[in-house]
Amino acid sequence: MSQHVSLKVASVGKKHRNVLKRYERIKRLQETEKWADRKSVYGLPKIKSMKIKVRKAKSEKADAAEGAAAGTAATPAPAAPAAKAKAAPAK
Fold first, then answer.
1. Secondary structure E strands in the chain
2. Largest Cα–Cα distance of the chain, in whole Å?
3. What is the pLDDT of residues 45-69, one digit of tens each?
4. Region 61-90 average pLDDT
5. CA distance 27 to 33
6. What are phi and psi of 74, to 5 degrees?
């Protein structure tokens, strides 16, 4: 028997949770070396859980293209104003 698509648990791991389970808190305390083996698992200290946003890095090609586009826009061609003057009476 197959499982319905809406009941799958794959998306749970991707979601950010503020409240950690006891074993997750102990694991983080061990990583920061604030956990001793003889400590009680009750009354654990609070652990700050931050969501990290990853921004897309601009590639060097995109930066070069933006710089080239800005350079051409800053210095218009001399024929461009004449073309605009001719186009205005044609309307």
1. none
2. 89
3. 888 888 778 888 776 666 666 666 6
4. 60
5. 10
6. -75, -30
- The answer to whether the CB of 28 falls within 8 A of the CB of 21 is no
CA 77 from chain center: how many Å?
Answer: 40
Place of tokens 């969501």: 51
- Which tokens is 48 given? 């700050």
H helices present in 34-75, as ranges? 60-74
- Angle CA 30–36–41, to nearest 5: 85
Rounded Cα distance between 77 and 38, Å, is: 77
Q: What is the pLDDT of residues 9-33, one digit of tens each?
A: 665 556 777 888 899 999 999 998 8
19: tokens are: 């409240």
